[in-house]
Amino acid sequence: MFVAVYWWRVHPGKEDQFRAAWRRGTDLIREKYGSLGSRLHRDADGRFVGYAEWPDEATWRAAFDQKMVYDDPATRAAFTDAIAEVPADADPIFTMTVTDDLLVRSVASAED
């Protein structure tokens, strides 16, 4: 398994818009590019951090090289409209191969 970690700062008041677009975009990326899904976190300073899982680096690289474009302009527009800041190079902050996975998978709601 391979993971990529990204972060975004969101305009105040657009957090729900961002989260909804992130969820929809994650579903579309999973369907089109074969990701295993993603988790969205919020750190203490308000920045959102996404952890995306992929079956392998080659699958992620193919999607990344295509800029993970999907056919839903409204979702993409809502996502980009909510973003106030991304890393300067807009690349993931980490890309890593999983060596040991002890994460317990839950069926918790995506809204939790």
Helix and strand topology:
Blueprint: E1 2-10, H1 15-33, E2 37-42, E3 48-54, H2 57-65, H3 73-82, E4 83-85, E5 94-97
Antiparallel strand pairs: 1-3, 1-4, 1-5, 2-3
What does this structure look like?
Strands 1, 2, 3, 4 and 5 form a 5-stranded antiparallel sheet that branches. This protein has 3 helices and 5 strands. It is globular. Helix 1 crosses helix 3. It is of the alpha+beta class and 112 residues long.
Strand and helix order: EHEEHHEE
The chain-level structural class is alpha+beta
What multimeric state do the chains show? single chain
Helix content: 25-40%
Number of helices: 3
Major beta sheet, specifics?
5 strands, antiparallel
> How would the global form be characterised?
globular
Average residue-wise pLDDT: 92
What share of the residues does DSSP label as strand, in percent?
Answer: 25-35%
* Regions with little confidence, pLDDT below 50 for 5+ residues: none
TL;DR?
The protein is an alpha+beta fold and 112 residues long. It is built from three helices and five strands. The two termini are 25 Å apart.
